[in-house]
Amino acid sequence: MAFLVKKFGGTSVGTIDRIKHVAKTLCAARKAGDDIVVVVSAMSGETNKLVAMAREVMPGTVDVRELDVLLATGEQVTIALLSMALKELGCDARSYTGAQVKVLTDSSHSKARIVSIDNEPIMSDIAAGRIVVVAGFQGVDEGGNITTLGRGGSDTSAVALAAALKADECQIYTDVDGVYTTDPRVESRARRLDRITFEEMLEMASLGSKVLQIRAVEFAGKYNVPLRVLSSFKPGQGTLITYDDEENEMEQALVSGIAFNRDEAQVTVSGVADKPGIAYAILGPIAELNIEVDVILQNIGENGLTDFTFTVHRDDYAKVMAFLSERKDDFGADSIIGNDRIVKLSIVGVGMRSHAGIASKMFQALSEAGINLRMITTSEIKISVVIDENYLELGVRALHEKFELAEEDSA
Ligand code: ASP
Ligand code: MG
To answer: Which residues of 112-147 are buried (b: 16+ CB within 10 A; e: fewer)?
Structure first.
């Protein structure tokens, strides 16, 4: 018997049949003795439809207060339908919008932050044996205005509820059955991880493994809420995300996963003076344009000149190239060279902290595969390389093999 917060994403409640299926599994868990708070997203595609309607009415800058009122309706539909489905099965349930439970947020419409949650109404329903169904993605500010937490925000709602209610675990049900060593579409021998640490999950998520909203993982780590990713369609243990402490001892793999990001582009500012202020002169204006810079690299200066290379999201590439080309005389650059056909490939693992030689093993694997490394960066639990996009699949498989991440019986 456990106290669980279970979150079902849009695909899991995407049709009436699926809602009924979710209700059945919830009822079974309740009958087995678990106390359950369910958080649901809108039916898949609904939030996008609502956004499109808003754009039709307000093609310019949409009014964010009213947009939040509109978007919050998506989740209100699913909480009602799921509660009905539960009652049909003879399982007592009650639905609540974010405002009703009182998920209090700040007033930043469309990207609100949760301030507090009122436990009282939920806990008295739980004490009465009910399943509590809460709308994800939404809250209410001090002034009573409806707010939303940003796209994918239901994950964060679930984690925040689990933290506030001191639940034993927050279980995120989705269309994959866990977190994998790498993307199974690229490496069919990718293996589901039983456990992964919050830190590793954050690195994997920020590198494009879009299983969980990054904010939700950060939140879970901060409040030490054990987080589990499970499939709503395929029974199984999923992947548990926790701290690696004595209580949750993990089998220490050196590398837990191979992550990658296809959306990168590289920009080189060549022949600039090797003197104070140059990095700022180039990157300051880029930051002011609200463009996020990822990998940054500067060469050792020779003859008083140096090259400066960095990566940005591919969507920002054209803008950055145009901007710098126009301004290259301001910082005295010879030329601006770009490439938007590059990707970032990374190995992630907390085991790196205590083991030497992981980087050289990575470079060996990539060299054996004949892959040219354009840039290399490292952090405490991650090593990343920037390579040509054509070599991504090959690189992922080479690293997966080298670090022996595959399923044992599928070799
Ligand atoms: N329905 C919202 C979205 O599509 C929130 C969520 O699904 O987590 O972004
Ligand atoms: Mg989602």
So the answer is: bbbeebeeeebeebbeeebbbbbbbbbbbbeeebbb
Question: What is the distance, to the nearest Å, from the Cα of residue 241 to the centroid of all Cα atoms in its chain?
Answer: 13
Which residue's C-alpha comes closest to atom 8 of ligand 1? 152
Grouping H, G, I as helix, E, B as strand and the rest as coil, residue 383 is: strand
User: CA 26, 223, 182: angle at the middle one, nearest 5?
Assistant: 70
Tokens 């059945």, residue located: 24
Report residue 195 as tokens.
């456990």
Listed in sequence order, the residues at least 6 apart from 332 whose beta carbon sits closer than 8 Å to its beta carbon are: 271, 272, 273
Q: Which domains does the chain have, with CATH numbers?
A: 3-243 (3.40.1160.10), 258-402 (3.30.2130.10)
Phi, psi of 402 (to 5 degrees): -60, -40
Residues 13, 7: Cα–Cα separation, whole Å: 10
Spell out which residues line ligand 1, taking CB within 6 angstroms. 9-10, 41-42, 47, 74, 136-137, 151-154
Full-model pTM? 0.86
pLDDT in tens, 62-71: 899 999 999 9
Rounded to the nearest 5°, which phi and psi values hold at 123? -65, -30
Read off the pLDDT of residues 212-257 as tens digits, 9 standing for 90 and up.
Answer: 888 899 999 999 999 999 998 888 999 999 987 656 556 667 899 9
**pLDDT (tens digit per residue) in 156-211:** 999 999 999 999 999 999 888 899 999 988 999 999 999 999 999 998 876 656 67
Closest ligand by atom to 212 CA:
2
Return the pLDDT at 191: 92
Q: Work out the number of other CB atoms within 10 angstroms of the CB of residue 396.
A: 20
User: 375-379 and 382-388: which strand pairing?
Assistant: antiparallel
Q: Where are the alpha helices (DSSP H) in 207-258?
A: 214-222
Protein residues placing their CB within 5 Å of the ion ligand 2: 9, 152
Q: How far apart are CA 8 and CA 172, in angstroms?
A: 6
pLDDT, tens digit (0-9, with 9 covering 90-100), for 140-155: 999 999 999 999 999 9
Helices (H), 185-277: 198-206, 214-222
pLDDT digits (tens, 9 = 90+) for 110-133: 999 999 999 999 999 999 999 999
